[in-house]
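Have a think about this chain, tokens included, and walk me through the fold.
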Amino acid sequence: MPSYLIEASYSNQGVVGLTDEGGTARREEIERLITAAGGNLESFYFAFGDTDVYLICDLPSNEVAAAIAISVNQSGYAKSLKTVVLLTPEQVDAAAKMAPLYRPPGAFRSGA
């Protein structure tokens, strides 16, 4: 199952809701959302700075990750949401073996 790093920042409404409900309740709701989508929440952290929440989860597919992002974004309680696909070292090894030949712009072309 693909793994994802999700970074979220709350809107003003989201901060008010977090203050009312608390951090534990928010983590439980996010875990419910991910589990209902067929996934698994690996870690969940609040943070200082531009990003309010970092979480790592496993989800069945990129489409499921996109559906969750759409649901969260349309709520209006998040002002930004960033989803990053995570790869294991073994997946990078497999990708490296599949890498096609690439010629950068302006690089010498053989036979030209």
